Amino acid sequence: MNSILPQLLINGIVAGSIYTLIALSYNLIFKLTKFSNLAHGGVLMIGSYVALYLTQNSLANLWISGLVGMVLAGCGGFIIEKTTFLPLRKKGASSMVLFIASLGVMMIIQAIIVIIFSNQSWNLLSIDTISVTYSIFGGLISNTQVLILLIDVIAILILTALFKLTLFGKIVKAIGDDAETAKVIGIDTEKYTGIVVFIASSIVGLAGILISLDAGMEPSIGLGFLFKGIIASIIGGANNFLGPVVGAFFLGLIENVGIWKLRGEWKDVIAFVVLILYLSFRKIKTLKE
Amino acid sequence: MTMIKIHNLRKRFGRADVVNNFSAEIFKNTIVGFVGPNGSGKSTVINLLTGVETIDHGDIYISDILVKNKKKLINNYSFNISRTYQDPRIFDQMSVLENVLIVLNKRKVLSSFFETKKPFNSSKVEEVLRKVDLWGKRSALAGDLSYGQRKILEFARVLAMDTRICIFDEPFAGLFAEMKLIVSELILDLKASGKTVVLIEHDMDQIVKLADYVLVMNAGKLIAKGKPSKILSRNDILDIYIGKDLHEK
Amino acid sequence: MEYLIHLAILLSIYAILGISLNLLLGYTGLISLTHASFFGMGAYVTALLLVHTKTSFLLSVLLGVILVMPISTFLGMISDQFNKNDYMLVSLGLNVIIFGLFNNLSNLTNGALGISGIPRPVLFNIDFSSNSNYLLLALVLLLLIYLFSHYIVRTSFGRVLKTIREDENVSKSFGFNTRYYKLVIFVITASMAAVSGSLYASYFSYIDPSSFSVTTSMLILSITIIGGLASLPGTLIGTLFFILFPELLRFVGIPSEEVFQLRQLMFGLIIVLLMMHRPQGFMGKYKL
Amino acid sequence: MNNVKKVVISIVLVIALTAVIGYTIRNKSVSKPPSSESNPIVIGSILPLTGDYLSVYGVSIKNAINLAADESGANVKVIFEDEHGCTPADAVSAAQKLISIDKVKNIVGTMCSGSSLAILPISEENKVVVISPSATSKNLTGKGQYFLRTIASDADNSKALAKYASEKGYKKGAILVNSAQDSLVSQKDDIKTTFVDLGGQLVAEESYIASSNKDFRSQLTKIWSSKPDVIFVSALPDDLALILKQANTLGITSVIIDTDTSAGTQQLIDLAGKLSNGLIFPFNPVPTNKQYTDFVTAYKSKYGEDPSAYAAEGYDAMALMIKAILASKNGASDDVKKQLLQIGQGYEGASGVISFGSNGDVEKPINIMMYEDGKPIKAE
């Protein structure tokens, strides 16, 4: 009985690569705006549904509709930031008020998508395109999955380069660490926040497109994937840049390898049990200091 | 009899020794002035004393009980200490009356469950609020008060708590002249009723007027202690405080 | 007329949930998304007892509360160690986990098949199968819980809760064991949710895990916030708004399903607008 | 404080206003139409029109019901109410509203077994005839004197499938089920017990929760590791299509049997295409019978898309309901029920030959079908 572990590992890595994009982009925004932004899950869906609309009406091939999806998701995130969250922050709204407002925005985006596209779940590639699969160390991986891994690696490299090496990245880090002093020394924090939100939103739009390429997309999935992204960015350690990447792959692997012993219906439960265990250990560690 | 004994206290934030082996004694039923330029570590010593910060090294004895505060916040109430903060920490979205009433609450959950709004001590609250002339504003939200009024409200709260040791962190900041007079009167009353008062203040006139004893701190160390009149006229003290060139002229 | 009675019963069930969450969030500042799980526990205990045993309705409500108390104490202790943002995520996680238990432990809860045939109570020889009688039962329980909450808020206990909401460290320095206070109010509100769960199970005579999911917790949260934090009458207004409004949509002439889609769009819009202009909700006295 | 009062009062006024206006419009159009015809037959319908993935089927059934109403030629007024994704509470609200406000005596609906169970107490108490087009759970059988179904309870389908599998000599069976959908869970239970009773060996049982994640690969990997001869899948078409795709990428070659009749609709072919080849599923309408093909063409011409699962059953339920009401004396429920039982014997409906049993369940001839490049053929 050839062990199924390699296949589960491959599934975990592919899931992890999608969680990475969500966790990274969520973390970028969280560090600047300091609140859990549920609208990020809505922006994820904007990306995938724009791509669906373009491919469905054959207005563009897969690549172009993917890019357009990303850019529009970026604009969507940017517009939401400027019209809703910025004025709220200007009014001195607390992080809880911002969280509830983001819940409202999420409901709006989901409702609009359901009105236009209905609740039907779909896959970007017409399902019956038989995908070529390669076998590596005992497991099978389809060409779409390889594509997803490639895109994921490229995205991580670009983001790390952008936020770690460039001056722009340093400024963003400064704002993240202490927005007040950043303002004092003349950085236009709102402009940078806007740019970072645009980048992060297009990345999460990319994640939406990859989900609809790989497994399948449906209006009620956005929030679920966002929670996985949030958990990944927390357990990966939100303070260093690549923390969420580690957290995302860890979560992807735990969920998929976990199914070896448990049934698939426990998938969501596993993710949150991991979160609560992590937070409790982190708490015990700080108490011991 | 020493009410508070501090023995070579040390506290480090990052690489800076904010307080390094600071020792002092505060005697019972006296008003102690605690002076020093900004950033000399005065507030940190007080925070260590009231458990807001954990002690890195050194011991604090409060009425001869060694303060063991591994946990972040010791329960000041059990050590019979009450304090105000440089930036007043009052309950903004509660009324002025409730801000003071809370300290007279029953502490145990069960007993507080059966203590309804009309407690006996509301007369005590009225007395305290009248003293600081806030009774008129008692139903206003604490958050809507001016900075001076917030300071006064926190001061009133310490009065209402009636603890043996009262620590005031710049109580006179932001007050009008006649309000300063009222506060200094009240501090003297506290001493008269047997309390021990620690006063962190930059307003030297008040220190000279009120303090029986002064501790001068700079760069985390205690550099002088003694009678205010004697201490504050010394050149080396003035140098640190007002800066060398200024007081030379 | 039956329809209005039905709505009134629905209102009182969700009002109880709203009031209990308001005690937690409006007065103590704890934003908990686990409420639908306690709502579910109460419902399942009553359902299982009424279907499989001959216990009376009141006893089943009591047993529901007795079961929820230790569980909520344990969950309260777990979630208490976290700061505000983590607390909310942990509470959300607990809801997902408990929903998973409801759905997957099928030999106990029948899983997605749910439990049907839950009888209506017969108390002091009044038969509660007619909705008007049931409305009395629901209103009595709502009144009791409302008065109890009104009492809590008026005591020193309630005042300490508000200080925990404002600045917990200062409250601690006054000698209040804030962890214990938070735990007690968490258990009380969980028990209230269990009571409304029992009402829900016996009224609808059928329950399945879908009514106790995270979306229900978010609905209760919206009711509390829109109604008004730290204002019990505000919660009643909030419930009125969230339960009546969708029912009104049934009367609007356009029968197409777009109208029903608009419901969610409208709720989202209202939440955002309210957060912009009145974060404390209609009649609230506490801004988040 | 007073501006808060103003805000609250204005909102309550707005709500009251919309209620009054809505109420009057609704009453005017329903009860006193100026036309000379006798009052229209009022039929209620409760379906999941919003909420999650179920609304795809709810909307399609609604279209089928409207189609049946138009084709009946009678003056029929259908009032649709939303049960918001099969939540029992919403279904009960919808039923209460239909019964007490619109004074409806006949309802075609609720789609899910759970919400049907929830509305039964009210509908039975008010003697309202309810025909469900898609509630298949067996604990609905005999629960309501006025409750009928135009879909066979899945117990018989699952038993037939298990018998088919064991006759084909499949020894090792595996299960993949959407554990959040009640009808699918009961199908899984039935097929599991029957397959094991007939000597089959259950080698793996996996599940997923539909609306949270569409990645079934790890479950399929685990199933495939025990190399089952046959995999019994209990899923609705859109998940089923994704399962077939992911099974294909994992190189799974076992025979796949879907336990839900919904697999037999064009919707699955559109989604899964060639991947559906070899899929075995239960289906009641004889695909070659004229009524089914007429229904599909009529539906397609009216709505421009193919009917989803359960639409045919909805169409038959409506048609039967209208015929029974017309035949009955002034629509008294007992009489309508009697007529339904009479008309509904060997009734050649779009969803197959319908003959109601005394308990309102319908026994339909069960056809086990298989897809052969997009065409359903009888699996031998």
Task: Describe the protein's architecture and organization.
The complex is a heterotetramer of chains A (289), B (249), C (288) and D (380). Chain A has 289 residues and is mostly helical. Helix content of chain A is 75%, strand content 3%. Chain A has one domain. In chain A, strands 1-2 form a two-stranded antiparallel ribbon. Chain A starts with a helix and ends with a helix. By secondary structure, chain B is α/β, with parallel strands linked by helices. Chain B is 34% helix and 25% strand. The longest helix of chain B has 16 residues. The model of chain B has no long low-confidence stretch (mean pLDDT 82). By secondary structure, chain C is an all-alpha fold. Helix content of chain C is 75%, strand content 3%. In chain C, the strands form 2 sheets. Chain C has a two-stranded antiparallel sheet with strand order 1-4. Chain C is globular, with a radius of gyration of 19 Å. With 380 residues, chain D is α/β, with parallel strands linked by helices. The relative contact order of chain D is 0.13. In chain D, the strands form 4 sheets. Chain D has a 5-stranded parallel beta sheet with strand order 2-1-3-4-5. In chain D, strand 13 and strand 14 form a beta hairpin. In chain D, helix 2 runs parallel beside helix 11, helix 3 packs parallel to helix 4 and helix 8 packs parallel to helix 9. About 5% of the residues of chain D have low confidence. The chains are: A mainly alpha (289), B alpha/beta (249), C mainly alpha (288), D alpha/beta (380). Chains B and C meet through helix 3 of B and helix 7 and helix 8 of C.
The major β-sheet of chain C equals: 2 strands, antiparallel
- How would you sum up the global shape of chain B? globular
Radius of gyration of chain C: 19 Å
Radius of gyration of chain B: 19 Å
Task: Output mean pLDDT of chain B.
Answer: 82
Tally of separate helices of chain B: 10
Helix and strand pattern of chain B: EEEHEEEHHHHEHEHEEHHH
Structural class of chain C: mainly alpha
Oligomer: heterotetramer
What's the end-to-end separation of chain C, in Å? Answer: 39 Å
- Low-pLDDT runs of 5+ residues of chain B are none
Q: Return the string of H and E elements of chain C.
A: HHHHHEEEHHHEHHH
Measured between the Cα atoms of the first and last residue of chain B, the distance is 43 Å
Beta-sheet strand percentage of chain C? under 5%
Q: How is the main sheet of chain B built?
A: 6 strands, mixed
Compute the average pLDDT of chain C: 87
Q: What general form of chain C does the structure show?
A: globular
Helix content of chain C: over 70%
Helix- and strand-based class of chain B? alpha/beta
DSSP summary, beta strand count of chain C:
4
Strand order of the largest sheet of chain B: 6-7-8-3-9-10
